[in-house]
Amino acid sequence: MIKYWQENAPQMLLEVEQHAAMVLSALAIALLITILLVLFFLRRQRWLNGLVYFFSLLYSIPSFAFFALLLPLSGLGMWTAVIVLTVYSEYILLRSFITGIRGVDSDLVEVARGLGMTNWQVIARVQLPLALPAIFSGIQVALASTMAMATIAATINAGGLGQLLFDGLQSLRVVPILWGILLTMVLTLLCAGAIWLLQWALTRRWAKMVRI
């Protein structure tokens, strides 16, 4: 394995960068869409439930089939992979946001409104801070799922660590496959650690905002 690294380190590092770009771009886009959907439909429960069912149907589509459906529209490459990964992440994130916000004690919400808070203040100062554990749990699950799923994107010339896996399969060599697995795990752990640090920072900051 050391010899393979010495011979292919620049290419492998490029694939790590491509993999991280795909996954983090998809997560960022999905997170932004989730926030907008939750804020807009929070008082429209039927619409919110309908969106969850809609994304659950999209989530059930096999990734190979999803890639194939998008190829005539977006072509080969990373952006097709980002679109697919965003859709898959959306279902996980939307459910975690809804579960977290709905799990907040309704008495706390009523007390906040009794103190004169507007709906936006209740969301920003009460519901979101208290829903952080569920929300970040969903982000971690989406990260791990997307990291693994992004390896399949190599089949549409999107690059990433999946290239190592497919090179190993095509050449019947174990070493590239082991490197692909190892680097995917390391990248996942690094990103998960960064997300944990962000959760810790937000929890400390927003804990001061819950004054009821």
Q: How would you explain this protein's 3D organization?
A:
The chain is mainly alpha-helical and 212 residues long. It has a single domain (2-207), classed as MetI-like (MetI-like fold, Orthogonal Bundle), CATH 1.10.3720. It is 83% helix and 0% strand. The protein has 8 helices and no strands. It has helices at 2-41, 45-59, 63-74, 78-102, 106-114, 119-149, 162-171, 174-207. The longest helix is centred in the N-terminal third of the chain and has 40 residues, at 2-41. The protein is elongated and about 65 Å long. The mean pLDDT is 85.
Q: Shape from CA axes?
A: elongated
Give the ordered list of helices and strands: HHHHHHHH
Count of DSSP strands: 0
Gap between N and C termini: 57 Å
The parts where pLDDT drops under 50 for at least 5 residues are none
Instruction: Let me know the largest β-sheet.
Output: none
Mean pLDDT: 85
CATH fourth-tier homologous superfamily: MetI-like
Total discrete domains: 1
In what range is the share of β-strand residues? under 5%
Q: So what's the oligomer here?
A: single chain
Instruction: Assign a percent range to the helix content.
Output: over 70%
CATH class: Mainly Alpha
Cα Rg? 20 Å
Structural class: mainly alpha
